[in-house]
Specification:
Chain lengths: ~220, ~800, ~375
Amino acid sequence: MGEPVLLIQGLQRRFGTSGPVQVLDDLTLELSAGERVAVMGSSGSGKTTLLHLAAGMDTPDAGEVRVGGHRLSRLAEPERTRFRARYIGLVFQDFNLIDSLTVRENIELPLWLNNRLDQRQRITELAEELGIADLLERLPEKLSGGEKQRVAIARALVHRPALLLADEPTGSLDQTTAEGVLALFDRVTREHGVTLLMVTHNDDAAALCDRVLQLRHGRLSQD
Amino acid sequence: MRLLLESSRRFFYRHPGQLLLALIGIAAGVAVVTGVALMRDVLIDALDSATESLSGSETIRITDPRGPLDESLYRQLATTPGAPALLPVLSSRLRYGDRMLELLAVDPLSLDRDSAVRPTGSATGQLLTQANAAVVSETTLQRLGLGPEGVLEVSHSGETLKLEIVATVSARRELDDRVIMDLAAAQHLTGRRGELSFIETSSQHRDWLIEHLPEGLELVDAQQRRESAAALTAGMRANLTAMSLLSLAVGLFVIYSVLAFLLVQRRRTIGMLRAVGVTQGRIQALLALETVILAGLGALAGLALGTLMASALLDLVRQPVAELYRMVASAGIRPSLGLYATVWVMAVIMALASVYGVLREAQRIPPGQLARTVHETRPAGLQLSRWLPGLLLVSGAALIVTTRGLPPVMAGLFLMLSGCALLAPAIGMQLLRLFSVRGSGLMPRAIKMLMSSRQRLAPAVSALSLALALSAGVGMMVLGFRATVDDWVSRLISADVYLTVSQGQLDSQDVEDLRAWPEIEMLTSSRQIRMDDGSMVVGYDLNRKAWAAFEWVSGDRESAQPAVEAGTAVLLTEPMARRKGLEPGDRIELATPSGAASFDVAAVYRDFSNDRGLVGLIGWRFRELWQDEQRDSIGLYLQAGTGLEELESKIADAYPAGNLTTREQVREQTLAVFDRTFRISWALAILVGMIAAIALISALLALGLERGREYATLRALGLPRRGLAGVVLTQTTSLAAIAVVMAVPFSMLIHAVLSLAVQPRAFGWSLALTWPWQPLAVIIPLALLLGTAAGAYPAWKIASRDPAPLLRAS
Amino acid sequence: MRLDTVIVLVLVLLTGSWLAWQTRPPEPPATERLRVQNLMSGESEDFRRVTGPEPLSFPEDHAQHPDYQNEWWYFTGNLETAEGERLGYQFTLFRFALPPGEGLDSAWATEAMWMAHLALSDGRSERFYQAERFARGAMGLAGADEQRWWLRDWEVRLDDPAWRLVAEADDFALELELTPQRPLVLQGDAGYSRKGPDPGNASRYYSITRLATGGEVRIGDEVLSVEGLSWLDREWGSSQLAEGQAGWDWFAIQLDDGRDLMLARLRNEDGSDSEWSYGLLVEPDGRSRYLNAEDYRAVVERRWRDANGNRWPVEWRIEIPSAGLNIRTRAVFDDQHWQQSVDYWEGMIDIHDQGSGEAIGRGYLELSGYGEG
């Protein structure tokens, strides 16, 4: 086994200044390439914080986050941003599509940010794979929730990120749609050999992962 | 309701910038309206109230329509048994630097006991006996920058007078910029022995006066004086009013755009409130109450700002009024509670009306709307049919073309500008689309993102483009007008140099003397008499060059000249012809000291010297009818080879009090007066420009708040800070760019309507339409710069924020 | 209440009151009073001073004396209607010379400021009517020559041997004929009336102490025929009051026994009687006797308090042993108070014998220097 794709050690994160809340406390996590891990926990247990720290959108109070050998804490903010554009794919609970851009343009964003517009054919490939090829020229506001999340998955994968971070990907979807999206998510991540860290409190979502961890009192534990 | 208000209050705590902008927007609009209203009042009411504050009551005035009163009339009336208290007044204009003062010479002993200026003790003695003793109000003393018992150096008809301030009277605004002297001293100093301007008394003595007044004199009451002052300044006031209403409209756009935006921000809250059982009516009432509080507070601040503004800018209005209409208005504004209340109520009502659409939209929010994404929704207020802007433009244009009065042209301009306001965002967004269709770089993407907010940004784009257009349009009109006046005056002034005297008069004998001088090739001369309504009658003695200098608007030069020279016909200036509705071929009757005289109208010529109009007739006929041999000025045409210095020294010997003014000096003086007249227009244009800046900043702040989540997403996806700042800057700059692009045609429209319709109807003269480019050259880069500068702060702020909290917050 | 609400309300109140303050009506200007002392004393180098007796001649000396700084023509009188109702009047023309002028080229140029006071005391309603006018001595607006003394349309014209007085104010008017009952008397030393330690603190002073008066008085719209007795004082000079003198109490009394009495009681600023007080007793046959400060004693019996809080002595006890007089003078009514440019009291009085209480005459009292402290 080579270097782990994601290595988190002794991670600490507190919020608030007066009587701070210790959200993450000496948290440790390791993901190897192609591994899919689900983190479950109740609301407010720090799942999203963990994800933001892994994406370099937040900085820990102590501890270390390494992605593909990059020590995020050593990177300056612009480098972290470049790193994120290059290595991370993000799927949000409420999609966060840019309403003013078409589906194609939304998926294209990571390619543009990485200066890889020459790989545009991947947009079509992924769209076909995710069953949204007919929707490419539409604006997000015309799409259903399931379609939106599929667009978001395509956007998260288009630049072949080393690590896919998913925050409650079915949280805004009804049961039936959620099942469809999960099946697709499962297939695509498997086929592309994606390393996935997903936070969720949906058992069905967790079920598709190789490992399921519980986040309690700021630490992870195996069931 | 209490709970609802609490929720509003917290919302504004979170978004103080929005609150502030809404307040500033309405305050700025109300300030301009208030300020202009206060300045207008000064032009009507305070113009000749000076003597009223001397007489201490509502007064009636005895004047001689033929000229100054003979002072013996006063003696005759005052010693008649049963005579009321009469105040003899001699009024003259004094110049102090570039400021005009009114010299009010009275008999201090005839002043009413309650009069503000009844001097006491030794001051009375000094006033009565010293040749240069004067009294001013305390505020005037401060305005002139003098200490008590200072010496006031003024000029009267070119002569320098040193007046000693022997006393001050307590501050009454009516006496601002007035210098009070004793009649004897004033007659002595100004060389006007035997003359009075008028005699004033309380209006309750009207009957006694009618019984005892000799034939040929007139009684003018305060109401008539106010009316004639109002008529004189009508054009000026109309200009000011139009500007102020436009400013208010721009201010309302600001409050609309802020409130509409606030509603979007609170859709979720309102949806939830509806879900827990708050009725539609209550939500509406809440929003209306919020508007009333916001607009009410803003308007209150606007009243205060407007009052300060009027005080600060009043001189810009007073000065041209003093120069053009010879009326020294009081230097202080006189606000009334009525005016304040009217403006305040109007502002609040208009704010409510302008957010009507927002209220309607709030009504449509279904209970429990909890969707996390904020969808673009069309505010009802702007859901207007496609043909409405066109209809507004066409009906406005029709109104302007088919009517003759000033109010309809203003209404027409308003309709057209409303049409423009509606068109501006739609066309602007179409323009943006052109830029964003192609290309995959940062800018097209940024513009595309901007366009999805077009409905929300529409009011801001309208306000911004209208305000910019207004600033530029007024600027273009003023510059175009200036060019026209320059052209006119350069053409009209045909003599090499003009002779006037500061003391005493020139008369026919002088004309004959000068004609014999070898240095002089030929002469012209003129004599002007000011009529009651502010118009002039001029007796001209013209030579062929002077005849050629007239620019004819209508009438035939070939036949006009002989008819005028024969004394049977007169020339009218354009304002006179327009005011009286006369054309060449019509008859005009003039009241002269020798009785009414009737003339043919021979021709109409261009003139910008007097908006009340001017009737020109041939000198000999004028002298016959008015029995007046005097000349105000004599134009000298020098023999080839004669130097000006040569003539100057000779004139100095022959006319010690003589002044020579060259052609170029006349032109400069004319343009200087012109520039002073339009300073207020520039000031208002700049104010409107400032409101435009507020509209822009408010739009940009709203944009930043509304797009926060999108920006955070982009950052999460890996857009670097600089890239995001680039997106924000591109968006703000392009917003400013479309506004300014739309402003260009609008400003031309405003310029054209002001020049071709408003000026002729307000002042009576027509202007040739020219297209000065300077205002556009200023506003285009300025707006772009403002767009960039106003984007810089939000860009920096948005970019430096960590995306995480924004993404987390829903 | 929340702090922010309080702050907003305070701001609203401040702005509102600032705006309200902006709309305040202009303050009425403060009007100053002329000070009699200023008019009557002060520098007079530019003018002649009265320093000793000089012969007077008439009618020349009825006219103005422009070489002197101030001068007046002063009529007072007690009148009665046909029903026996009491009226009193005062008509005074004052001339105040101005400092020498600069030779202005104007018909309005003047050397003097003229002031006229017209008053009527209505004993029926106890109302005091007053009117004041000013004019310059130019343009024919005011002046005094041998035949006519006038200010605008108020005038006194000599219609030998009588004078005709015509003066009309807004709410009252006088039209009287005044015929001298006895010859003119010179006050002081042959018309030289000394009032202070400096021989120049003096005036030229003559009187006609009894003029039969008849004519019409108008009060509002009511016209009354009246008859009675008047008194004329004529005085001119350049610096009457000496330093340290505060004012005077002047009595002009016509006794039923035919004697006329003038008393001028000068007061020092410390409130004491001045040694320069003087008087004149005129016998029915026209002979007169000068009275000095030792010749009489005047004591205030009652003071009247005006609205400003000043106290005017309206009731006196006067003893003149050498004339056998011990009298009490009483204002017919208290409020005969002049309140225009000058503040003084001038009104009709009744004369009673101190012992018997019997009415023995009528007169006029002038009080000056009480309302200016």
